[in-house]
Each structure stands twice: as C-alpha cells, then as structure tokens.
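hiii so um. not sure if this is the right channel but i have a protein structure encoded as tokens and i wanna go backwards to a sequence. like what aa goes where. can anyone help
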C-alpha cells in the first residue's frame, strides 16, 4: 500500500482543479455519497484475483492475486465523478494502476473492439477499447491518498473520468476482451451504451444508430 505516488504533471492537476464547470444537468454534491445496486462484498484476500480473459492476444487467461496486482506501477489521476442521477463529486485524487497497463501486459487480440469490466456479484459494464485505454482510466485502490473504503469499492474500482460513473465498477475483479460489443448490467437496464456526460448520454432511448447493440 505504501507505493510511491507518482503525481501527474502539475499542468494536468491544476487544469482539473480550475475547471469548475460540470457536465450539463449535473449539480455539485457535498461529501461523497454511496451509490450502487446490491450489497457491499466482503474482501477475502486469499480468494481475490484479477482476471483478464476472452480474446487475449495469446489465447490464455491472465491472473493476478491481490499482492501481485497491487504491486503493479502506481499512479494518480485527479478526476471528477459524475453519477447519472445528476450529482457530481469533483476534484478527487484517485491512485492506482492505469487500465492501459493491463492492456500492455495482457494484450488483446487485434480484433478486440470492446471490453466488459466484471465486478463482484456479476456486476458488469461494457466500454469501447479506446475508452478503456484512454490515458486517465485507472483501476483505483486509493482516493486522496487513502485506501478506498469497502462501500466505495475496496479493494479495487475502475475510474473512467470522461464517462458517467456507472461505467466504473466498484469491487472489480476482471476484464473480458470482446470482438463485438455487448451490454453490461446498467446498459441492459435502460442506461446509455456509451455514457458520455458531456453530451448527456444518460438513457438507452437516446442512443443513435451505431452507439450500441440492439436492445
Ligand atoms: N459494482 C458496482 N459498481 C458500481 C455501481 C454498482 O451498482 N455496482 N454503481 C455505479 C454508479 S451508478 C455510481 S454513481 C458509482 C458510485 O460510486 P460511489 O458509491 O463510490 O460514489 O459507482 C458505480 N459503480
Ligand atoms: Mo450512478
């Protein structure tokens, strides 16, 4: 847990802090509410692993235990969290392992276009590969220098700053590489397949042709 925190460039950090505007329709939330479906899972380190599977480049599954996963290079990203129910939490400093790192060490096959990010109890969210590998997407273990609490996703949650927060599963356990898009948990239940808050892609009825698989 005592990994050296490699701060992002000062430029990026102050940019994040200075940008006070929120995506359309969002309001600032004081504090940090807890929002999710279902119970908070209990973390059992001896049973925990992180898996990369599906269409990997070598056709193999890749698996890390908790010690191995948290030993991967640590970095921080200052980012806001936008819930589709219209609250935003701004200026958090997330610490963890860049999603890009996983793609580098366990590469997808060349025809992979999307990923499904899997969490405890079968929660999932689908992302375009380009959103997943964007330079600020992070598997977070920490927020503002402290370990995540259980209700906020300990030991691991995905943060994808440029998408609505449901695209970042808490209690994440793995990534499936996919050669075609498939809807995740909320995306099957009426939420937008892409989920860009800046263009208010909240609900699946707003999808344009090509935004997602048939419902
Ligand atoms: N596993 C899991 N992760 C999840 C969710 C969920 O229901 N299950 N909800 C998402 C939603 S809708 C939001 S807004 C954020 C909330 O994160 P927070 O509770 O840390 O504020 O978690 C996301 N990650
Ligand atoms: Mo949300």
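sure thing!! here u go:
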């Amino acid at each position: 847990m005592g990994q050296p925190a490699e701060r992002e460039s000062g430029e990026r950090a102050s940019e994040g802090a200075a940008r006070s505007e929120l995506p359309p329709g969002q309001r600032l939330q004081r504090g940090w509410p807890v929002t999710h479906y279902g119970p908070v899972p209990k973390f059992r380190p001896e049973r925990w692993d992180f898996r990369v599977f599906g269409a990997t480049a070598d056709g193999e599954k890749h698996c890390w235990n908790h010690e191995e996963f948290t030993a991967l290079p640590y970095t921080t990203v200052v980012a806001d969290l936008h819930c589709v129910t219209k609250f935003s939490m701004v200026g958090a400093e997330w610490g963890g392992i860049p999603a890009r790192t996983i793609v580098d060490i366990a590469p997808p096959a060349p025809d992979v276009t999307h990923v499904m990010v899997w969490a405890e109890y079968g929660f999932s969210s689908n992302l375009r590969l380009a959103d997943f590998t964007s330079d600020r997407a992070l598997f977070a273990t920490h927020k503002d220098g402290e370990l995540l609490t259980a209700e906020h996703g300990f030991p691991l949650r995905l943060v994808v700053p440029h998408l609505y927060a449901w695209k970042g599963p808490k209690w994440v356990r793995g990534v499936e590489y996919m050669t075609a898009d498939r809807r995740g948990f909320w995306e099957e239940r009426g939420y937008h397949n892409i989920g860009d808050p800046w263009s208010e892609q909240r609900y699946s009825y707003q999808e344009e042709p090509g935004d997602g698989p048939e419902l």
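oh and Helices lie at 10-18, 66-70, 99-105, 129-132.
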